[in-house]
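Z., the sequence and structure:
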Amino acid sequence: MTWHIFNSDGHHVGTCDHEPNHEDLADRGETAYYYQHNGRGTLIVKDDAVAVIPPAPSRYHVLQDGEWALTPTAAEQQFADAKTAKQAETNRAAQDFVYRVAQLDKVPAFEVDTWPLQQAEAELWSRDKTAETPILAQIAADRGVQLDDLREKALKKAREYATLSASVAGQRQAYIDQIKQAESLEAVEAIAVIYHLPTKPQQQDKEAV
């Protein structure tokens, strides 16, 4: 037998394995309920009356007069927490999408760390064919491939990755804007975070001179 004690706000404040002094609890603004669990919910036995209470709809709900209630303060906290959780979900999904599309799981971390350096050398070489590219030269030598071929591939790969990253960054920021602008819990929960491959940017029409 377990008695659960709630304060006047409906928050659970303690338990005891024997029936408490109800008058003493009342002086402190507290109420004790005897809980028995079954498959449908929770049986509350108080003053010889029995009622079945289903599980709390959320961790924000509190028990008031034998019913689960969501106070205005708790509702605000629930809404704020939902936005924070949706933002975290959005960020994780963005990272996972880039990770999967770029196949980063197939490349060791130390090599990924060289990508910005490879990109810088490849971009420099694309503008000046006489430019030195020591990192790419070393990779080509140890790989046994033509340096110019590696430069071309590194340039292509770097630009594709930059395009992918920029696209996902834009999509992520758009989702974050939606989350910030959401005015209800339902609106936050309705935001489906789904990333897609880059779309071709629209060309702006030049004004006639």
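The helical segments are 22-27, 72-101, 109-112, 115-127, 134-143, 147-181, 185-189. Residues 61 and 69 are 5 Å apart (CA to CA).

Let me know what you think.
H.
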